[in-house]
Amino acid sequence: QVQLVESGGGLVQAGGSLRLSCAASGFPFSRSTMNWYRQAPGKQREWVATITSAGYTNYEDSVKGRFTITTENAKNTVYLQMNSLKPEDTAVYYCHANNPTWGYYWGQGTQVTVSS
User: Fold this and answer.
1) For residue 58, what are the β-bridge partners?
2) Taking Cα atoms as reference points, which of 27, 25, 9 lies closest to residue 17?
3) Where are the alpha helices (DSSP H) in the chain?
């Protein structure tokens, strides 16, 4: 059974930091592309960051230089380190896995709230 379980969300003041974690199981994590998405109230879900199985990363423009996506294959976990947080980063953050053989999967989401 495939599972993606996010954690690490919470309430933080503007300028602060949070680290999100996504623990994966049930599929070949090290051979998958992992992504973070977010959805703010009243808005569509948007892509935030990607890390491929080869370690290449890419970021949405508004988070470049502030967010960092990494993986720890030994723990089947992907992280999103978020620094210099802004109120506009407030959203539910979702972990997403994409594997060419197994398909794609979503986590349940974790709330991040940044106060001004």
Assistant:
1) 50
2) 9
3) none
Residues forming a β-bridge with 7 = 21
pLDDT tens readout for residues 55-95: 999 999 999 999 999 999 999 999 999 999 999 999 999 99
Give the β-pairing of 103-106 and 3-7. unpaired
Closest listed residue to residue 24, CA positions, set 36, 15, 13 = 36
Q: Which two tokens stand for residue 79?
A: 């992280």
12-15, long-range: CB within 8 Å, 24+ apart, which pairs? 12/85, 12/112, 12/113, 12/114, 12/115, 13/114, 13/115, 14/85, 14/86, 14/87, 14/114, 14/115, 14/116, 15/84, 15/85
